[in-house]
Amino acid sequence: MAHTDHSGNAGPSGNTGHGGHTGHNGPGIARTVERGTRTLSVAAVDPVPIFREGLHTVIDHTPGLRWAGHAASHHAAIQLCEQARPDVVLLDAAFDPRCHLTTMLTESHPALVVVVLVGPEQRTPLHLATALAAGAHGLLPRAAEPRRLTDGIRRTYVERGHTDPALAPLLDTPGTGPGVGGGPPQTPLSRREYQVLHLIAEGMENSAVAESLFLSVETVRTHVKSILRKMSAHDRTHAVTKAFREGLLVLGPEEPAHPARSTPEQQAREQPPHPQPS
Fold this sequence. Notes:
The chain is an alpha/beta fold. It has helices spanning 27-37, 49-60, 74-83, 100-108, 125-133, 146-159, 168-171, 191-201, 206-213, 217-230, 236-245, 264-270, and strands spanning 40-45, 65-71, 88-92, 113-118, 138-141, 162-163, 258-259.
């Protein structure tokens, strides 16, 4: 599968990864041109299968966009971004009520563009400001028409920031904005601890967690001890209970990440055009 390098290093084909630049003169212009013309891989984090399938269909039928897969849990979302390395992630706002996952993804993958799909219940100045403070790049209505959605995805990627006109007035409300709350939501756990906590919540023992994350059992034990200490929890059950109460964990189906597979035709389309001789 042809994935882009989040580090921005050039791959075998010579094209740069996320956020990388290729120009010798005017790197900013070259970067903007590249971001506006390259095929974007788009993944979704959403617990509703029918909605994910709808997104999949829309993305696959839009020139310049390619489906990179989906995830239906926070742990699977982290795995998806590590394995599929999408350019853009569409994240259901209701599935990340305290924006902890947004923070985790943007901090772990600085070049990743996170677009939050906002439903009616999250359509509040506070939630939108919290999402932006957590690192979200785009805010789009969850019920947007397909063309409006895909245009918003492309614009967010190119400009590294876009709020749909239907949501923008909420950010103009006095007392709201990206700086509200003093900064992004605080996530006390590391990315790996966050994954371990999610697997514990799914009922896994240390050995199963270790196998799932390709870690040693002793390393998992160390992570569990750190989780209990950071969350001031007496035991694993207490830690999971507190995590749900504080919004670190949300209820969702236990489903692994599903990175999409590129067809030969898609791989050919994704190759950058040969530069014209000057």
